[in-house]
Amino acid sequence: MLLKIQFQTTPEQAKDQVFLENKIRKELKLGDANFSFKWNRRSIDARKKEIKINCSFEVFLDGESIPDVPSFLPKNVHSEKAVAIVGSGPAGLFAALRALELGLKPIIFERGKDVRSRRRDLAKLNKESIVNPESNYCFGEGGAGTYSDGKLYTRSKKRGDIQRALEWFVHFGATEDILVDAHPHIGTNKLPQIIVAMREEILRCGGEVHFNAKVTDFVSVDGKISGIEINGSNVLSFEYVILATGHSARDIFELFVKKNWALEAKPFALGVRIEHAQSLIDKIQYSGRLNDEFLPPASYSLVTQVNGRGVYSFCMCPGGIIAPCATSDGEVVTNGWSPSKRNNPYANSGIVVSVGPEDFPHDTSPLACLNFQREVEQKCWEAAGKNQQVPAQRLVDFIEGRKSKDLPETSYQPGLTSTDLNAVLPPLIAENLRLALMDFGKKLYGFMTNDAVLHAPESRTSSPVQIPRNEDLQHPDVKNLYPCAEGAGYAGGIISAAIDGMKCMDEIYNTLSAT
Ligand SMILES: Cc1cc2nc3c(=O)[nH]c(=O)nc-3n(C[C@H](O)[C@H](O)[C@H](O)COP(=O)(O)OP(=O)(O)OC[C@H]3O[C@@H](n4cnc5c(N)ncnc54)[C@H](O)[C@@H]3O)c2cc1C
């Protein structure tokens, strides 16, 4: 028999198995019955001075054993119907894994390199400011997800889909904690081996993964996809193509414009990445508790409205590092990651201002938001010495409009150039950021310190372009082409991208089954 129980404990008690067992026994009045239990949900309630852990358990009686995490059940697809998947990010990989379950043969084309070779390009980017346009923090095996922070929470409400995506992460090597924690996190150090395990399974079952294989054109006949061109020459025939190229594949958006295929400018958000000492954030969020072995490094989530516009914290990384995420020379971009232990001394987060096509009435092209994004990235590159250093400013100096005399240590490896960001960022961004940061300073006492540093820009928050699709998930101008996940504007983050990848593959399967 399965019972469920919820209660609150202190952080210490939540890690004490004997305490938990006794508490469950007492609360459920189990006497001396034999039982086993497993965590169902775990979250931190730090709203009051005394921090509590919300615990939820499943309890199994009558000798019933704890059920295993549902397994991933692939088929042998060596000789099955092929589906081309462009991009090996979370969307592409999960579409491929779903194909294995459904009995379809996934063939992935990825412009970048495999995880291990990619790591060398990241080292060059960090140490020598050399941007490889095909292999960087956004491009390569596993996409932007591989060297990302690996936070796995999503605003998506589809609990069943989220659960399945999380279970697959566990199947390929993540710990079962991600099935329980309210804010699950894998960490940059652990993601690459999970991605490799997914690739090995795809190959073992008969799928294919091609690296250094950039899709440079689509071939269509009578409004229906018939093939893809790889690296400018090799044309391969496919009846079904999933396009999961992410928000940074600008050449794909430009190709759509050239082909006159429907495309729309999409609202996104742009701003800066702020870095504080992690110890300060812990102190603010945990009522002064510092270096507490029973609590994870603290995070925050901030949101406000300024001049009718949303400004919010984005992808907050406790114990993290700010990474150079440009995808070509002549631009700078920041984002953040953290290792599984989140044990770096810094806390960083994007603080971003919502923008939309209505902000650029002079630019009526579908690339209006992308053009704005690119201009800001290029201007920041110029302002910081035309390498991968980023323009930076202390928080209070930014609010008061003066260039910082010096800058504290940063986790951003290529380095910083002291700059008045009010002069580099467009007024639309700088003014709304300033007002929002002042508001955040009031909401989180201690946040407003001149030891915090703004790194500019945080610009790849989501896609600035939407590739439309019909109800059957196909592009309105090209049948059997499935615009997918973040790049097409249908996902934001690892889990929602993974879910959209599965969804596109399901749709192809349904179409095939109906014919
Ligand atoms: C540093 C960093 C930290 C992040 N942290 C988090 C986090 O903690 N939690 C979270 O949910 N999200 C995080 N994200 C965002 C997350 O990684 C993305 O939302 C997610 O990866 C999007 O998945 P996707 O499959 O749609 O696209 P992507 O992951 O962008 O994958 C697209 C793939 O397509 C390939 N590609 C592009 N063009 C072509 C082409 N023409 N031909 C062939 N291949 C092509 C690219 O090389 C890439 O591999 C982070 C991102 C970064 C960069």
Q: What is the CATH architecture term of the largest domain?
A: 3-Layer(bba) Sandwich
Integer-rounded radius of gyration: 24 Å
Distance linking N and C termini: 45 Å
Total domain units: 3
Q: Which secondary-structure class do the elements indicate?
A: alpha+beta
Strand order of the largest sheet: 13-14-17-12-20-18-19
Low-confidence stretches: none
Strand count, sense and closure of the main sheet? Answer: 7 strands, mixed
Write down the CATH topology of the largest domain.
Answer: FAD/NAD(P)-binding domain
- Considering the protein shown, what is the CATH homologous superfamily of the largest domain? FAD/NAD(P)-binding domain
What is the 3D shape? globular
The tally of helices reads 14
